[in-house]
Amino acid sequence: MINTDKLDNPQEKKIFKGFLLDGILKRRILDKIQITLILSEKEGFVMFPTNEGNTDMREGFYGNDPEFLEWCKDYYQWCSDNSKKITNKMFE
User: Fold this and answer.
1) Alpha-carbon Rg for the chain in angstroms
2) What is the Cα–Cα distance from 73 to 52, expressed in whole angstroms?
3) Which of these, 25, 34, 26, 30, lies nearest to 84 by C-alpha position?
4) Each residue of 44-87: pLDDT tens digit?
5) Rounded alpha-carbon distances, angstroms, from residue 14 to 2, 6, 21, 89
6) Tens of pLDDT, residues 15-24
7) pTM higher than 0.70 for the full model?
8) Per-residue DSSP letter, 82
9) Residues 40, 46: Cα–Cα separation, whole Å
C-alpha cells in the first residue's frame, strides 16, 4: 500500500493525481476494517487481524480458483459499496 500523503517526489504526486482524476486509482475507506484483501485478476489473498487489531501477515487464505476469486471480488465490492470516499487535500 502506498501512502500518497507522504509522497515527496513531485513527479510521483503528479502521476498519482492523474490516476485519481482519470478514475484509474480509487481510494475508499471503511470505518472499521476487519479483513485485509489483496486481489488481482488471477489470484487473491485474505488476511485477518491479530488480537491487537493489526493485520496478521503470517497466515491467511490464498487462492486462484474461480470460486475463491468470485468471493474475493464480492467482498471487495461490498467494501467499496459500504465505504466513503477519501479526500486528499494534497491533490486539490
Assistant:
1) 15
2) 27
3) 30
4) 999 998 888 888 989 999 999 999 999 999 999 988 898 887 77
5) 14, 13, 10, 14
6) 888 888 888 8
7) no
8) T
9) 12
* Paired strand residues for 47: 36
3-class state of residue 16 by DSSP: helix
Q: DSSP string of 19-81?
A: HHHHTSS--EE-SS---EEEE-SS-EEEE-B-TTSSB-TT--EEE-SHHHHHHHHHHHHHHHH
The closest alpha carbon to 63, from 36, 39, 37, 45, belongs to 45
Amino acid identity, position 28: R
Q: Are 14 and 53 in contact (CB under 8 A)?
A: no
Q: Residue 80 is placed in which grid cell?
A: 467499496
Indicate the Cα dihedral angle 54, 59, 63, 67, nearest 10°. -70
